[in-house]
Design a protein that fits this description.
- The chain contains ten helices and four strands.
- By secondary structure, the protein is mostly helical.
- It has three domains: 46 residues, no CATH class; 82 residues, no CATH class; 97 residues, no CATH class.
- The strands form two sheets. A two-stranded antiparallel ribbon has the order 1-2.
- Helix 6 links the parallel strand 3 and strand 4.
- The longest helix is centred in the N-terminal third of the chain and has 26 residues.
- The radius of gyration is 26 Å and the shape is extended.
- The protein starts with a strand and ends with a helix.
């Protein structure tokens, strides 16, 4: 969260034109949002499989068919129109009355003073957790009797990591957070690393190792003297800042430890949508003639291995 303060400036013009410009600007922005949404809606992710595996566009019998998940496929937006760089779209938008001079009403950066920045960042790319690794290995064992039918790349497939790095920050994650630190520094108006001062900066992470490693990666690109940085880490059972849910008795009682709070998850595992995904996986691995069946745990293992 970044707070900016603008220096006072005089206002001019009568009331009606200002109201008119605001209405026109709002209309133009709503039109832009509509265009972006319309061009980014993905098609069915089963385009390369036979039609019997595709989800029906008209089906409304399965309540899970149009739901989203917290872990889902990231669609490749390069196949669609880049709304941000399309001259025709930009030109059309700027023809709206009152929008062309909108930038003139925005305070120049030189008139702004940075007051405070608050940044909450999730850890960088990590290795699968121990539970995920165990699930993936169980699936590989399940596939061994069918190796002759599997695609070539799957015949001798093995995980490139083991339990020794379970849940730890990966090298790619360190690079990811380091680049974030560089961008954050640039957004704050600093081209070069800044001097760390205890009175000015506070760096906090949880007790989990990958969050500390992420903080170190961020600090390394943001500050000129990363060795002087003091990291704040609260004990596992007293971290009300970053892991407040651990201290919330109601959350622990009514959500985390309450099986009835996960009814939708259990229903989804028995839904026709998940059955279609299992069938698609069986087809993709060349196992349609085999007796193997994939469970919801198997599908989650595939997701963990490919994420």
């Amino acid at each position: 969260m970044t707070t900016m303060r603008s220096t006072p400036s005089s206002a001019s013009g009568s009331l009606p034109p200002r109201i008119r410009n605001c209405v026109l600007q709002a209309f133009a922005l709503c039109s832009l949002v509509f265009i972006v949404v319309a061009t980014q809606i993905p098609s069915s992710f089963l385009l390369d499989t036979p039609s019997i595996f595709r989800f029906s566009k008209r089906s409304t019998t399965d309540k899970f068919e149009h739901m989203f998940a917290t872990k889902t496929k990231y669609w490749d937006q390069r196949e669609g129109m880049n709304i941000n760089n399309d001259p025709a779209v930009e030109g059309a938008i700027l023809t709206f009355p009152g929008l062309a001079d909108m930038n003139d009403q925005t305070p120049h950066q030189s008139k702004l003073e940075l007051i405070q920045t608050q940044l909450v960042v999730r850890h960088g790319i990590r290795y699968p957790t121990g539970g995920n690794i165990k699930e993936i290995n169980n699936l590989l064992e399940k596939l061994k009797p069918y190796q002759d039918s599997l695609p070539t790349w799957m015949k001798n497939y093995a995980l490139p990591y083991n339990m020794s790095v379970a849940g730890e920050l990966a090298v790619a994650g360190k690079h990811e957070i380091s680049k974030l630190g560089t961008r954050a520094r640039s957004k704050s108006g600093h081209e070069k690393p800044v001097i760390y001062l205890k009175e000015k900066y506070r760096i906090t992470h949880t007790h989990i190792t990958r969050t500390r490693d992420s903080a170190i990666a961020f600090v390394g690109s943001f500050f000129e003297n990363p060795e002087d940085v003091e990291y704040i880490e609260y004990p596992k059972d007293k971290d009300v800042l970053l892991r407040f849910f651990d201290q919330c008795a109601r959350y622990q009682r009514e959500v985390k430890k309450n099986q009835t709070a996960q009814l939708q998850l259990h229903d989804f595992q028995k839904s026709s949508v998940l059955a279609k995904i299992a069938l698609w996986l069986k087809y993709s691995l060349g196992l349609m003639q085999e007796s193997i069946e994939f469970s919801s745990n198997d599908l989650m293992a595939v997701q963990s291995a490919c994420a």
